[in-house]
Design a protein that fits this description.
This protein has eight helices and six strands; from the N terminus they run ααββααααβαβαββ. The chain is an alpha+beta fold. It has a six-stranded mixed beta sheet with strand order 1-2-3-4-6-5, sandwiched between helices. The longest helix has 16 residues.
């Protein structure tokens, strides 16, 4: 396995370990590894990783919203097809994928900044050691370098991450539902 592929698999595994109840982890390591590869390679997105020795201890991903990550995944048709075969027979997962597409292109989402923090995870053994703050600051610097003045963060209302984003200076600007019955806070961070 190349170091490049190892990075995306590491990120996918940390995502799954950190966000067990989320929808994207249910799509599996291969799908997530491909998604993070596309984020890392896209000129409209970023993937910031932090390793200690050879262990991934955290990452943050974001997009400036000028293009679709899912369209970027189409440039890898065989990998995408193979990752989605198990999903094709699960109607609940297909419905959730459609909910995400509707959310991303819907009028409710259009009222917020197009730049978005997509995912941030820190390995459980390295939490409360400043890793998340360091990653978040790296994202803010990325936004500054791209002349992005603000970005949105969508977080399930029941998650502890809400407190973290408030502490970083993000302000709750509203709420929405990406998946039916699950309310999320919409934070906006001014850069």
């Amino acid at each position: 396995m190349s170091k490049l592929n190892k990075k995306y698999i590491d990120v996918a595994n940390l995502h799954i370990d950190s966000l067990k109840t989320g929808f994207l982890p249910s799509l599996g390591v291969r799908f997530l590894a491909l998604l993070y590869r596309c984020i890392d390679e896209a000129d409209f997105a970023t993937l910031i990783v932090k390793y200690r020795d050879d262990q991934l201890i955290g990452f943050v991903s974001a997009t400036n919203g000028t293009s679709s990550l899912y369209k970027a995944m189409i440039y890898y048709p065989l990998e995408l097809f193979l990752t989605l075969i198990p999903v094709a027979i699960d109607l609940k997962k297909i419905k959730k994928i459609l909910n995400i597409f509707n959310h991303m292109s819907g009028a409710e989402r259009a009222g917020y900044p197009s730049a978005e923090l997509l995912t941030m995870c820190v390995h459980k053994d390295f939490r409360r050691q400043g890793v998340a703050e360091n990653l978040y600051l790296g994202l803010v610097r990325y936004c500054q370098s791209k002349s992005i003045s603000e970005f949105v963060i969508i977080v399930g209302q029941s998650l502890d991450a809400n407190k973290f984003y408030k502490n970083q200076g993000a302000k709750v600007s509203g709420e929405l539902q990406v998946h039916n019955g699950i309310n999320s806070n919409v934070f906006i961070h001014k850069v």
